[in-house]
Design a protein that fits this description.
There is one protein chain. It contains 12 helices and 6 strands. It has about 450 residues and is mostly helical. The protein has a 3-stranded antiparallel beta sheet. The protein has a 3-stranded mixed beta sheet with strand order 2-6-3. It is rod-shaped.
Length: about 450
């Protein structure tokens, strides 16, 4: 009985532990749960009152239970090992992913640093590029200025070449004048009586005769010359007057036909208004004639003052002064006249010039006009240009209309080129532009009215 009681106690303990395990297993469930087994075997067994007397378990049932238990244990071990392997694999993959993430983060930091460095270098390159662009622009501006200066120098060289051609033509003219004078002297010697011809000076001395040489103590020269000899003693100015007249008239035409057009092309590079270009050229010609006339009068007064104390002989003082001026035309200070013309043009309210340029651009043209005007004053009679004002009545005698004029308009809008006058008669017509609506000039004061 004691042994039986022990067995019952042991079986009750085992049953308690079994039910505890079953309770835990049924409560947890999941992969390791046995709810299906409990439903399929334990519940029917409990329903058959397994505690009833005389109930026993067959041997097959115990073996199947042991087999199932072993299978379950094996499955559990396999599942556990598989779970461990999965955990290890996941940990390895997690570590690899973390490493890749760290590498990606490092690469991102490196890329960001390179981007910042590239931005800095690009900013510096952009600043350097802007500085280079500014430098290149300055170099381009300097190159353009140099090109313009070289172009002006080329124009000046062209002016010098034209001046050389003009001087060569003048030399040829002077040679022809020399031949004409020699022929005249030969004719004078052939027409003079033999005694006078033997005592007359050589042709060279007669051609270069000056007032100082007239004071020679020769008896023939101290006595008043005969009417025959006085009539055949022309001065250099008288001998060359017609030749100089023709040459200056031709040169005046060249100034209008060639030099004026060249200067217009040069001015159009800086001035867009064609009317202003023509006004500038016309005013430069008028101012050049005015300054040249003043310079001629001043030089004539100085020459008369110089020659009056030493003047002797049959030739009048005025003829001697004129001959002295013709012989010394190269003493004319043309550069001073050019400066005076430019100074007058700078204060003229009718014309304007761009601020980056000056009227000194017209210096070669003004120089030629001043020389021609100065030599025209040495002619007998002298050549001059008439007074011209905007809005005056169109004179068909003095001017011809330009191609862009309104031919029915009676008033002058502006002048293009002055006329050339000789003894109040028109020698060469000028050119002007007539337009309707041109403002007429106000009536000038009477010459008899004096202002105080």
């Amino acid at each position: 009985m004691g042994k039986l009681c022990e067995l019952i106690e042991l079986s009750s303990k085992v049953q308690g532990q079994l039910f505890t395990a079953l309770n835990l297993t049924a409560t947890q469930g999941g992969t390791y749960g046995g709810i299906e087994t409990l439903k399929g075997r334990l519940l029917p067994w409990l329903g058959n009152t397994f505690l009833a007397s005389g109930a026993n378990v067959s041997q097959d049932t115990s073996l199947s239970l042991m087999k199932e238990s072993i299978d379950k244990d094996r499955e559990m071990s396999e599942l556990k090992s598989k779970h461990d392997e999965d955990v290890l694999r996941l940990e390895v993959e997690l570590n690899a992913t973390m490493g890749e993430l760290k590498d990606t983060h490092t690469q991102l930091n490196d890329s960001q640093a390179e981007l910042t460095k590239t931005k800095t270098e690009t900013g510096g390159d952009m600043l350097a590029s802007e500085e280079e662009i500014c430098i290149l622009r300055a170099d381009l501006r300097i190159a353009r200025d140099d090109a313009a200066r070289y172009r002006r120098q080329l124009n000046v060289i062209g002016d010098f070449e034209r001046e050389i051609d003009r001087l060569r033509s003048e030399v040829n003219i002077l040679r022809s004048e020399k031949e004409i004078e020699q022929d005249c002297l030969i004719r004078v010697r052939s027409r003079s009586p033999s005694p006078i011809r033997r005592r007359s000076p050589s042709p060279i001395r007669l051609r270069s005769l000056s007032p100082i040489r007239l004071r020679s103590p020769s008896p023939i020269r101290l006595r008043s010359p005969s009417p025959l000899r006085r009539s055949f003693s022309p001065t250099r100015a008288d001998l060359t007057n017609s030749i100089r007249h023709s040459r200056l008239v031709a040169r005046f035409n060249d100034l209008y036909a060639v030099d004026r057009l060249d200067m217009q092309d040069r001015l159009r590079r800086y001035v867009d208004d064609d009317e202003m270009v023509k006004r500038i050229i016309f005013i430069s010609v008028c101012e050049s004639f005015h300054v040249a006339k003043m310079a001629y009068r001043s030089f004539r007064l100085r020459a008369r003052k110089f020659l009056s104390p030493i003047h002797r002989g049959p030739i009048s003082l005025e003829d001697t002064v004129s001959d002295y001026i013709v012989r010394n035309l190269d003493l004319y200070d043309v550069e001073k006249s050019v400066d005076d013309v430019i100074r007058s043009m700078n204060v003229n309210p009718k014309i304007s010039f761009p601020p980056e340029c000056e009227f000194a651009l017209l210096s070669p043209f003004i120089r030629e006009v001043c020389r021609v005007a100065y030599e025209m004053q040495a002619l007998e009679p002298s050549l001059d240009i008439p007074l011209a004002t905007d809005g005056e009545l169109m004179s068909e005698v003095k001017y011809r209309r330009s191609y862009d004029s309104e031919f029915t308009a009676p008033l002058v809008a502006f002048h293009v080129w002055p006329a050339l006058m000789e003894d109040n008669s028109v020698l060469i017509k000028g050119e002007c532009t007539t337009r309707r609506g041109a403002r007429s000039r106000s009536r000038s004061l009477s010459p008899r009215r004096r202002l105080y």
